[in-house]
Amino acid sequence: MKRFTRRQIIITAAVVAALAVMTGGYLYYAKTYGNASKITLYDTASPDYDWQQLAADNNIVSDYLWSKTQSLMVTGASDGVLIPTSYTIAGRLVTQEASESGIYDLSDQAALLSCYVRAGNRSSAARLKNTVNERFATDSGLYLSRIGSDEDITAEEDNLDWLEAYLEYYAVYGTSDDYVAIKALTGKLFDTDGQIVPESLTVAHYVDTMYASVDDSDGNGNGDGGDASLEQIYGALVGEDQNEEVSRNEEDASVSGVKLSNVRLKLIYDLEHNNLLPQGSYDSALATVQGGIANADIPLYAYAYTVTDGSVSYIYTSEEDAAISVSESVATMRNLAEMGQLDEASYNSLRNLVLNTGIIDTYYYITTGNYSGTEAVEAYPDAMMVAFYMGDKDLYNALCRCVGSRVASKSSSPALYMIYREENGRYVFYAGENLSVRLSVG
Predict the structure, then answer these.
(1) Which of 162, 198, 214, 441 could serve as a FRET partner for 261 with CA atoms 20 to 30 Å apart?
(2) Would you say 366 and 231 are in contact if contact means Cβ atoms under 8 Å apart?
(3) Residue 146 has what pLDDT?
């Protein structure tokens, strides 16, 4: 009988062990990644050096903004993984200590996940994704909109934000478990026809009158959409001579519908082309969004739509009577521009507003034909992307000027390079705004 030397035994054992490790590794890889369906996303460009330089000329330095936001609001914050909604730096008084909100919005985590993916930070992206799946998930299959507060809601908008970011993550780093989670969430947000599931919306309502407006009419009662009359948009509050205003009491009302800005055209396109939504979902969604424009004189988009017996009706105003939300309209413009489908009149209305006034106002008041209200700071990141998609560097530069005026520039500031809002004499830095601007600069 042949005897094996000690050296031969050691080598044989090492080979067997290596084969076992390789086999185990292969089985793990096959289970985790091998069964994961391949996903390809619609190829949209991101701002390159020329656009980033325009932003930098207006104090928005993308890398610095991203680095400081991470260090102040993630790694240096109390949670360490999730990003809080806001951070307030210390004030001038000794009693005005720095503080973070302690509240975590799902939409902010979605923006953070997109930032990690685009920065190529796989470990941080995976850690964040796992944390959200653990702490925001509910038995209903939807995610909580926020944690850390008394609110316990699952808003459609926040879940769509997460689905968009999750799909982006999956296309680069995803596992088979992620695919299952994405498919399940898609099934909760969309019906079997590929339409977004309606939710309860609060809109301005006048006692004994209709909503402003829930009729998809062309102004002549044809109901073929996209050209609503002034009376329909205004909510039947204008007298017959259109000068005499009718005095009525306003109250909030709930309606089952879908916010038009929630119809994320690129997301729907990607889901359809990866067999997660039925064929025709994108074309149907595009037609619905394009039909939401008020009319030729008011090239802004509706707040929401409802569907009754297959017929689409639009709601043009939300919390303010006889006024169209400009930020909601701009968000819808971005969805269209991203797919090369933005109406020229709508784009020009935004361009003229910014270049002529220097800001984006909160409301467009239908009776006066004027923009007014406080500055809609939340609209700037969307508007910046509209300008980018339309190749308009003049508009992009003007928007960067608006945002850049609120960049912390004091060298001793712990939030140097971040974007602030001044509230009650304190400087507050919102996660959503800083992350959205980062994504809009590239």
Answers:
(1) 441
(2) no
(3) 97
